[in-house]
């Protein structure tokens, strides 16, 4: 790197704040110096300087010709702890949360925006119910109901002997077996609640700066934004729930005071999802027991109906809590509905405990027969999820109906519904994989769901049909994958002439060198084809899921006879594909677990998984409270506080320099700055996915209007990119009055085509990394500093030193 960039001597104090991208970086690498010092922050996220620059503000004469480099290291927010590799199991929740933020921009349509948010939250709620239902299927149905009733199964697994119906022990009664097994899904729900509460306290409970918030909307002259009253309706912050309609907002969504502090909604959703999990377990217990009690006279049938009614009433209350309100962003909302947060899960747990006591009553003559009614539960959940996704698609289409449409928006505004469908598919594969593998394990040599003589242990028929469509889905993906591969090869050939023209290499043509550069550019363009694959997968999953439900119902939902109602040829083919799909589901789930365990021990694998969370957990938990925590709710306030405090205490100029995902954090932090600070800040982005990924997939927050507004509100902005970069790209913000276009010309990669005096050895193709190695980087950074206004003299006060982060210094 080249941290020292010339600056005008009259410019005064200047700070370059570096923010790394995905995968993390060390302060030594970012500052190009082995001796670094942490000047503020903790082991999770901190600001670092070179040891020689710690007291830079006390000696401004030393830095008259260069800015002070400072690095913000946030990699431990996502990939620092090996235990976080287990967050892979929360992947469906994270994907559902992304769907919330993918809606099209819809100025002036608050009703549709609210409906979109409600539908996504309902999809997220079904994922919690599905996960809990899968745990109930494994623990209650397969283990405590079917296996414990089979002497052969309990003899093979001695640890189940105390539940064996053949041995006639106290715990062998069906109701008591179910009550004991209910501890497994109950503990799972409790674990999810604990992780959500703990991660909120550890990562997201960082309040944004409050000293600069103005309760009244900022005037356009101060912010650089044009008055857009409809922006107040372009987010769920317009919910009338408890806040009323509120004043007109002139800020973009990411600049609102409460955007990066969603404590109230997360606590509310956490209570609702925890209660939903407990109620799912209670429903499974009550349904199984009441099914027996309705056949025998006595008070059992009345108690069973009463408990089922209590579960249904609480379920309606959970739905009301989830639908009642969305995010509140107009102000920093510090309130928590403690009564709701505490009593809703508590009452649900109490109903579960009463249901367990009810199931544990002595019922002479009650024996396990067949399977529990899991087919109806899983079939109903699948239909509800499909209906919600279709409704979400309809709302997205209505939201996109406006005069000006951005043709680069992913899937023409249907990215949110498509990703929500992927979340449901991932949850189905993971839950179905567990059930299939446990059934196969308990069943010995038989294959779950097959009709060869009737297996002892049978999962729900729907899972067998879902397993049978997985190979079909993979075959459907082969066509677009092959098409993209062929197109990439052809694009690489077409780009050869362009590469030679860019380097003016007519006199030194090297077919191998040209081919490698052209192939790198062609492979980088594959990122732009991601919406096609997502659309194909989501559409095929929706249709095949509907087909699996129809097939399960046509077979009569008889365990062990999944394909009896089908034509013999279809049944034979379905049997083969089901066996393949069953093993593929199990293999996929084991791959998840193995990958997580490897990442716990291997730092490089842990960093790879961290990259997934760097991209997927940027957004706050607005739909699913059990999703992995949002690191930006810590990182954005960190950057905002640092930029505000440094400029206020020194009056100096500041360039925030963000690479890759760091550029997204930098842009979000600039949006949060007060107007006076924005006027002293320049933004430098490189390898940035701001438009290529975020603008296309999250158009309501990073669309063309939002990026143009960002260019107007910050003093100056420059963006660097390469044609060989698969992640970063141009931000496509044109010139605006006296403001030049944000994008520079695409940087050549490699810097030199062949051997030169300046580059005697062949230069590597860098792609997404090492932008600072290009001479254009230092030139652009120096130009931004030149455009910033001179430093404003500020009196030195004791508090200024603290603001500059000189306290809490420790060796790096």
TrEMBL record:
State where composition is biased (Polar residues).
798-812
Determine if Transmembrane is one of this entry's keywords.
yes
Transmembrane stretches, start-end: 85-103, 115-135, 178-195, 271-290, 302-322, 343-361, 376-399, 411-435, 465-486, 530-553, 573-596
Q: Which UniProt keywords apply?
A: Membrane, Transmembrane, Transmembrane helix
Q: Does the keyword Membrane apply?
A: yes
Segments carrying the region annotation (Disordered) are 211-251, 782-812
- Tell me what this protein is called: Integral membrane protein
Under InterPro entries, the record lists: AB_hydrolase_fold
Q: Which SUPFAM superfamilies match?
A: alpha/beta-Hydrolases
